[in-house]
Amino acid sequence: MASRPTPERSTAILLISCPDQPGIVAAISNFLFENSGNIFDVDQHVDPDENAFFMRIEWGVEDFGIERERISAAFTPLAEKFGMDWELHFSDVLPRVAIFVTRDNHCLYDLLSRYESGELLMEIPLVISNREDLRNAVERFDIPFHHIPITKENKAGQEKKEIALLRDNNCEMAILARYMQILSSQMCQAFPHKIINIHHSFLPAFPGARPYHSAFKRGVKIVGATSHYVTEDLDEGPIIAQGVTQVSHRDSVKAFIRKGRDLEQTVLSRAVWLHINRRTLVFGNRTVVFG
Amino acid sequence: MASRPTPERSTAILLISCPDQPGIVAAISNFLFENSGNIFDVDQHVDPDENAFFMRIEWGVEDFGIERERISAAFTPLAEKFGMDWELHFSDVLPRVAIFVTRDNHCLYDLLSRYESGELLMEIPLVISNREDLRNAVERFDIPFHHIPITKENKAGQEKKEIALLRDNNCEMAILARYMQILSSQMCQAFPHKIINIHHSFLPAFPGARPYHSAFKRGVKIVGATSHYVTEDLDEGPIIAQGVTQVSHRDSVKAFIRKGRDLEQTVLSRAVWLHINRRTLVFGNRTVVFG
Amino acid sequence: MASRPTPERSTAILLISCPDQPGIVAAISNFLFENSGNIFDVDQHVDPDENAFFMRIEWGVEDFGIERERISAAFTPLAEKFGMDWELHFSDVLPRVAIFVTRDNHCLYDLLSRYESGELLMEIPLVISNREDLRNAVERFDIPFHHIPITKENKAGQEKKEIALLRDNNCEMAILARYMQILSSQMCQAFPHKIINIHHSFLPAFPGARPYHSAFKRGVKIVGATSHYVTEDLDEGPIIAQGVTQVSHRDSVKAFIRKGRDLEQTVLSRAVWLHINRRTLVFGNRTVVFG
Amino acid sequence: MASRPTPERSTAILLISCPDQPGIVAAISNFLFENSGNIFDVDQHVDPDENAFFMRIEWGVEDFGIERERISAAFTPLAEKFGMDWELHFSDVLPRVAIFVTRDNHCLYDLLSRYESGELLMEIPLVISNREDLRNAVERFDIPFHHIPITKENKAGQEKKEIALLRDNNCEMAILARYMQILSSQMCQAFPHKIINIHHSFLPAFPGARPYHSAFKRGVKIVGATSHYVTEDLDEGPIIAQGVTQVSHRDSVKAFIRKGRDLEQTVLSRAVWLHINRRTLVFGNRTVVFG
């Protein structure tokens, strides 16, 4: 794993949200045009009901008229003029990501397989688990595995440890890959809109525990999975991606679980891909996804 | 509309549910075999957790060894031996169906188009509405239209009228094609598991009123529609069919509604097709669908 | 049908394609900004491999700084500077559309139902058919029905008649709603990228006649439908929309056809909606769909 | 990996196909009933056009009236009477499977993850590859990796080696997990309907090489993946499972490939699950899938 895959080209990515008003697009376009920005991709959205403007714009950083260290400063006046919330990212600065797991291996393997193939361009400095089950699976990939068991009594302290581990490893974000623990608010607040969870139902149907059992009991004909940002309200955070698949009376709860696993891993990996490619914006409790 | 489409062949259809035990299939098979039954279709299902057995079996009625009037009597001993709940239908006896509408025309037209083409083999002796909006649409098809307005005050009496109308027209069932009134329990009890509704969400998510608005507000990435049997618990009846479609941040509530309409009409018509082809069995609050 | 539904607001819509180069977005944005254009929706796309730029932009026409009659002239210099292919439409000028049918009614009814409800904002001055079967269905909606039978011998002449009918009725486009005749090149050339067809397979699989029979024979597990612009190469035109649904060994050819009908009508109506809302651009043999 | 997951219960599974005639179901039911067979699952299908009968029946082997070694002999007279093609399997005799790979790791990891979790109950005595790329990925799972490079010149000989390896390892079947070599007829004939491939398109659309590039060029709006039994006619074998996902003009060929990978691994693993659970029957060039 000495030489990890790298992005094809070095780009700068701006993610912008602000109140809508005439002239925003023209101003941003001119900013890039005047500095010889070679735009690779631009996507924008106006929510007329909320009078909100959203944009993702990606351009080549190497031949840009402003050095990468100075882009933020150069853009700030324009951002202030329009009251923008904004983030600037560079495609060649890979996000450092902690993965949390418990016992199920399918989401973990799916992430690791895409990580190894270079589809998910990120660093994984560590995996954290409240159980030992998946140590072997993780260490096979030469990734450090941290066993941090959680009980009601030690939860606050153990989470502090986890936050420290993420900070020490410069992780900007975390993925809960079927991590079977509810995060406390200290954890949620430490990484706001930076923790991605997969819930094994089509939210808002069947929040909480054992959704497949509930879905079976209700007699649904379709089951789903939902990937969302973790907030303090369990299973209520902004949704990034959802997937569904058909079931029938022939499917037992076990079959629901088996079919659902396919969804969970696919939906989670899609959400992670969107996030680390800086294609998601949170607005209120919804997301704008430049897919 | 003088000569309505008729089924290709005359068949008898048995729908059976009973506690599972060895020998059921052998007994039914022998019953048909000994009377020269030419089986066209058989489908069965065992729910091991509930120890329940379900079967749908369809055979030619014309060359069967027992006359159609005497099949019930001939089958009764076997049914009693195994404690069966059972129904016997004939494909050439078309179900008589009342359709309830309010203002939206898409489900109505979809049903009428399939009725006219012969895909939905049923009789529609009447359409009932609490508004006048769709009178013209219905009468174009030479189907009597009954305007029965409902207020909180007159509801009980008006529903009595509706029940009488259905009885007078020998309707065995009803379809709520975006009928914007909640049925009272007298109506539900008059036609148990014989009234099919379409709800414009992926139940159990977003029950009740304005589901597209709720779905939009929650920021879901997929919307759905659910067709179910009406019971006294609103939106809680056994689900027959569900469908879903993708939405994104680009979709306004209006777009949710527009995309949802495609689902509503398709899912409702599929549920109706399944029911009138005697392919559904209710078991507790779930359905077995021999699709 | 005296008062047909009208659009909510009067907008101007520009559809643009041109070689990509820096400054296009800035130029267009400035053009609108300087004339107080209130942008409702903008969507753009750059195809880096083809170096092609595509845009759809929609703004309010009532308070725009340029009168609607003069917008074209005012935009022309900018369009010429960037070598644009462009179209200007107004949402309150409803497209006039001819529908062609043969015998199947489902796509026809689906279109008429959406037309009547105002989902499809268009005028339908006439329906043309090579058979009489659907006359009644059409005339119910107070739309003139023209029976123009086609044989190998009379085809060229009859198509001339059809073209004349469309011209006389100021139809800018046509919809083939399961019209079972192959259009000759004179017809295709008369309305380039203005005739929308529905093909009852997932193209390019199963082009030509009897696709459901071929799909059944091949043993596929999913069937589809494809809506595309008609070109002289049968079933080879630019695809606008596709849909699919699952099938199994339990499904006969007849079931394939029945399930396929749901797709055909939904996919065709979606494609028509996209086209008449000026959300499609043809580029080579592909489409850009601002969905 | 010392203790691999085992099936929950020991069952016998009969897969039967034969010409349809009255009395088959009764005969089989009686055979099991008379020997105290506890049926867990039964599914059957009649293809009326082909006059063909198909059945899968699964029952408990431990309390069955006939010892497992003698079931075949006991069933043979009945099978001969009805001219059956039949197979008898036991759920606790895990199939031994060889996996073939080349360079892409996603299908491999998906299979290994499901193998490790016990979802895919099978033995994997070896992985074969024409390249070295995935050695490390395989050996991590303590599975022997065989590098057997193939050139036009050495193909016949190398395939002989592969067949010998499979025979030596008692492999009854093989999975081509994005194995980028066309099997010759000697290989196909050595394992008829026992080699499962994943093709990265919605067959029969885009057979052969580089299907995503072809799909992109054709401008499709949906891409697919197809898992099928390998026959001597490339990409023409009986289809077991298919999946699809939406694409748009925003998706480059690279995005088609990325989205397709999700399908490939899911569809392949589903097909393998169906096969090793003895839920597939080949009939002509189609499959009956008791899903």
Description:
Four copies of one chain form a homotetramer. By secondary structure, chain A is α/β, with parallel strands linked by helices. The first copy, chain A, has two domains: 11-90, Alpha-Beta Plaits, CATH 3.30.70.260; 96-289, 3-Layer(aba) Sandwich (Rossmann fold). Chain A is built from eight helices and 13 strands. Chain A is globular. The C-D interface holds C 45, 47-49, 54, 202-206, 218-222, 224, 238-244, 248-250, 252, 285-289, 291 and D 45, 47-49, 54, 202-206, 218-222, 224, 238-244, 248-250, 252, 284-289, 291.
Number of DSSP-assigned strands of chain A: 13
CATH topology of the largest domain in chain A: Rossmann fold
Examine the secondary-structure arrangement and name the CATH architecture of the largest domain in chain A: 3-Layer(aba) Sandwich
Q: Considering residues with a beta carbon less than 8 A from a beta carbon on another chain, report the largest interface and each chain's count.
A: C-D, 33 and 34 residues
CATH class of the largest domain in chain A: Alpha Beta
Question: What is the assembly state of the chains in this entry?
Answer: homotetramer
Strand content of chain A: 25-35%
End-to-end Cα distance of chain A: 29 Å
| Biggest sheet details of chain A | 7 strands, mixed
Radius of gyration computed on alpha carbons of chain A: 21 Å
* Strand ordering within the main sheet of chain A: 7-6-5-8-9-10-11
Give the low-confidence spans of chain A: none
CATH superfamily of the largest domain in chain A: Formyl transferase, N-terminal domain
Helix content of chain A: 25-40%
Structural class of chain A: alpha/beta
